[in-house]
Amino acid sequence: MADGIFFKNQNAAFDKLFKDLDKYTKEVVAELDAEMHAGLIDMETQAKTFAPPGTGRLRGAIKAVKHAPLVYDLRAVTDYAAYVEFGTGPYAETYVPSLDPEWQEYAKTFQKATPGHTKQHPFFYRAVRDVFPIMIERMKKVLEP
């Protein structure tokens, strides 16, 4: 895996939302895609806003990327993004357990043998956590009769 933090739109919420996607018209799918795109752009903007001051390289590395219709990811590709996000050493030990379980597992993939002493500065998780439910609700409204 490349250095950086990634959020992919492949999870249970999307699986449930898209289980019968083939029954919808191309127009509805295009509306869903537009809502998803808008949501990922909102996440990107929020993450850049929440990133610590003086981290222009980190802010510049935060991008919403479209791979195909309804297939996006949000990424912060730097070799230190995860350490800023989750902290290291005692800071990570305190902060990471407060995350959702899937994010806890993800954060653990960045643990190093030497613990470090970087204080966490949540920017990425916070943006996803704040915007994701709003995006899902907007997408559900597209599917309402």
Write up what this structure looks like:
The structure is a single chain. This protein is mostly helical and 145 residues long. The chain has a domain at 5-79 and 123-143. It has helices at 12-17, 26-50, 56-61, 81-86, 89-95, 101-108, 124-143, and strands spanning 5-8, 62-68, 71-76. A three-stranded antiparallel sheet has the order 1-3-2. A hairpin with a 2-residue loop joins β2 and β3 (71-76). α2 (26-50) runs antiparallel to α7 (124-143). The longest helix has 25 residues, at 26-50. The model has no long low-confidence stretch (mean pLDDT 89).
Short structural summary:
The chain is mostly helical and 145 residues long. Helix content is 54%, strand content 12%.
Based on secondary structure, the structural category is mainly alpha
Describe the global form.
elongated
Q: For the terminal residues, how far apart are their CA atoms? A: 41 Å
Order of helices and strands: EHHHEEHHHH
Give me the number of helical elements.
7
Please supply descriptive tags for the structure shown above.
single chain; 145 residues; three-stranded antiparallel beta sheet; 7 helices
Topology:
Elements: E1 5-8, H1 12-17, H2 26-50, H3 56-61, E2 62-68, E3 71-76, H4 81-86, H5 89-95, H6 101-108, H7 124-143
Antiparallel strand pairs: 1-3, 2-3
Helix pairs in contact: 2-7
